Amino acid sequence: MEWAGHTTHWTLETGAKVWLRTNSGFHDFPPAGTDLPIILGDATVISTQVVSSSPSKLVLELDDGHRRSLTPGASRLSPRGFPGSEWIVQRRV
């Protein structure tokens, strides 16, 4: 199961909306241990890995070693029409 994320933001700052999607059907969130590339608004790709996963919170480790938590949002489509589950970036953990 491969996952990817997309955001219209240029960084994963607090409050950024990220849409996550898998190529093996629709699931709301990736399991722990999943490699999760996220495409930023300027087309930069950030490599992350899911450290912990639940329906109410994800923790991602960024390629620089920092960790960010994400909580579920409300939308199924991004402003640009990218399908997937919406997650909101929270503070560093």
Report what the structure shows.
The chain has 93 residues and is mainly β. The chain contains no helices and seven strands. It has strands at residues 3-6, 17-22, 35-39, 45-54, 57-62, 67-72, 85-92. A seven-stranded mixed barrel has the order 1-2-7-6-5-4-3. A hairpin with a 4-residue loop joins strand 5 (57-62) and strand 6 (67-72). The radius of gyration is 12 Å and the shape is globular. The N and C termini lie far apart (26 Å). 24% of the residues are buried. The model has no long low-confidence stretch (mean pLDDT 87).
Helical fraction equals under 10%
Q: Could you tell me the radius of gyration in angstroms?
A: 12 Å
Total of DSSP H or I helical runs spanning 4+ residues: 0
Q: Tell me, what's the shape?
A: globular
Kindly report the oligomeric state of this protein.
Answer: single chain
Strand count, sense and barrel status of the largest sheet are:
7 strands, mixed, barrel
What is the terminal-to-terminal distance? 26 Å
In order across it, which strands form the biggest sheet?
A: 1-2-7-6-5-4-3
Structural category: mainly beta
N-to-C order of helices and strands = EEEEEEE
The low-confidence runs, each spanning 5 or more residues with pLDDT under 50, are none
Q: How much of the residues is beta strand, in percent?
A: over 45%
Summarize model confidence as the mean pLDDT.
Answer: 87
Count of distinct strands = 7
